[in-house]
């Protein structure tokens, strides 16, 4: 039976039920809805709407339902109810008769759904922060497994300057740290309780909204009833955090897919996170990484979809807002899965350090170093840049590295070049010379790694 049948003569069409019913997806809010209902039963008891004994009976029945919800034994499909709120209420009425019918006094599904969904988002923020921590840990561990490895760094996907592998890992650590701080930040804004705001205008009963907020673990009540029932900023913020973090995971996946390619051959991935080809027996494909990249589409899509849904809605609640859930449930779930698999991929990864170093030596990545060397000899940088370019051109013609050219050849281009140029052109030397805060030299990377480990301890 629906919650609103009184003023209707005819029933709903089957197609209307299909477009309107949200129980098939909002059933995941069962435990939040029941906990909200327990808090509400206490609030209306305090307000004198029901007696202590009645409140106790409601609470006992709701606790039993909560247990079933947690065990996954509630039969949603058989109930034929419209949404999770009517499902819980119908279950109460079935058990308690008229007492069950008292619970909804002064409450609306509008403040109810806003409360349930905020609770759900808050709980998932906590889970997702733990997931992010695990990926950060996996990056730090990978950095420590290959603490001295050097690989090419790229701009425009052209070999640019060599970097230490831990420096690459720690770049993603920085991104994920921002993702975690975004969650901490947005969770403060979503930490307000809508319950007691009614359908849109507040309620006439003497409800202690702060007590409800305290009981449900919210910092405070929402301050405007119109806003409280129609605000979905907290979902949007969560979707933006999910999208940004998925973008980070996707870039990491893209780097690793490239590192794993036959052409680069820098890393090997574990069997546990790769798959084979049904046709080509030799193949080992980086599917987990491709899916981390691929799942961005639907997560970004959910953010865009909700922004568009919300943009034209007049105050206060409109049924359009029921569309807030499926995208958010999916986005959060995909983000969670991608963080978990991201950590697994990183744990499974090994670096071919020799091949990385070889690639870092190729591609004239030490040309900037040669220019800096010439600056040290008193040549203006712009001129030094030009000379170094000529040296690269000559080496290309000779099909060798800069450091393989004889001194006579270098001096033919620039007489200021001496024997002392050769150590400068060595890989380790030029990497470790970037000895500045945030740079890829051995010392700043070691310091950054220490910093990341302290961050994890204090997380
Ligand atoms: N299932 C609805 C939703 O998710 C619950 C709120 C319904 N409110 C209403 N006035 N019909 O938005």
From TrEMBL:
GO molecular function, one term: argininosuccinate lyase activity
Pathway(s) it belongs to: Amino-acid biosynthesis; L-arginine biosynthesis; L-arginine from L-ornithine and carbamoyl phosphate: step 3/3
Keyword terms of this UniProt record: Amino-acid biosynthesis, Arginine biosynthesis, Cytoplasm, Lyase
Keyword Amino-acid biosynthesis tagged: yes
Enzyme class: lyase
Reactions mediated catalytically: 2-(N(omega)-L-arginino)succinate = fumarate + L-arginine
InterPro entries linked to this entry: Arg_succ_lyase_C, Argininosuccinate_lyase, Fumarase/histidase_N, Fumarate_lyase_CS, Fumarate_lyase_fam, Fumarate_lyase_N, L-Aspartase-like
Stated name of the protein: Argininosuccinate lyase
Sequence similarity: Belongs to the lyase 1 family. Argininosuccinate lyase subfamily.
Family annotation (PANTHER family): ARGININOSUCCINATE LYASE
Enzyme Commission code(s) on record: 4.3.2.1
Domain Argininosuccinate lyase C-terminal, residue spans: 364-431
Annotated compartments: Cytoplasm
Gene3D superfamilies given in the database record: Fumarase/aspartase (C-terminal domain), Fumarase/aspartase (Central domain), Fumarase/aspartase (N-terminal domain)
The Fumarate lyase N-terminal domain, residue ranges: 6-301
